Amino acid sequence: MCRLGHFRPRRFATSISPWIVTREALEPFACMVPVQDPAPLPYLQQAQPNNYDLQLDVGLRAAQMNEAANICRTNFKYMYWSSVQQLVHHASSAAP
Length: 96
Prior knowledge:
By secondary structure, the protein is of the alpha+beta class. Helix content is about 15%, strand content about 20%. The protein has helices spanning about 25, 85-90; strands at about 30, 50, 55-60, 70-75. The radius of gyration is 17 Å and the shape is elongated.
């Protein structure tokens, strides 16, 4: 068996679930990425909105707790790399 490489563990024994949100459904929330400094390589530069204005909250509930404690709140629009840039990076990095 070949060993799992850097990007391969996430693909092992996975499937797409019904909770996946399509890109078309996210279009009303599209926004530009923050200023990228240093500028990405030319093939990763973007002229159109490829990030999304989505509020993200993370809660943690230990076994002894009745309710989850909010431990993080942010917005996806602050991601330095858009999902499109991440996909292009993975595709061009020879990740099978």
